[in-house]
């Protein structure tokens, strides 16, 4: 999660909005040209963006500190037990 004001996006995004399992409204942003997923935002949580790590030009500063949706982790991608885990979405 990144504060919105710390995020610089070059180019236009296309958004697709769905209702989350908890009733929140989640908008997912994709590259307008190639369709790559770039970020998500929860409309009920102002000022934060959930950035897809693979979309970053420089990820050297990235510090992973949480697991999300650990309840649906697959055996081939186990949860890092040393990190804080949310079984689903964090409470809004």
From TrEMBL:
<protein>
    <recommendedName>
        <fullName>CENP-V/GFA domain-containing protein</fullName>
    </recommendedName>
</protein>
<dbReference type="InterPro" id="IPR011057">
    <property type="entry name" value="Mss4-like_sf"/>
</dbReference>
<feature type="domain" description="CENP-V/GFA">
    <location>
        <begin position="1"/>
        <end position="71"/>
    </location>
</feature>
<dbReference type="GO" id="GO:0046872">
    <property type="term" value="F:metal ion binding"/>
</dbReference>
<dbReference type="InterPro" id="IPR006913">
    <property type="entry name" value="CENP-V/GFA"/>
</dbReference>
<keyword id="KW-0862">Zinc</keyword>
<keyword id="KW-0479">Metal-binding</keyword>
<comment type="similarity">
    <text>Belongs to the Gfa family.</text>
</comment>
<dbReference type="GO" id="GO:0016846">
    <property type="term" value="F:carbon-sulfur lyase activity"/>
</dbReference>
<dbReference type="Pfam" id="PF04828">
    <property type="entry name" value="GFA"/>
</dbReference>
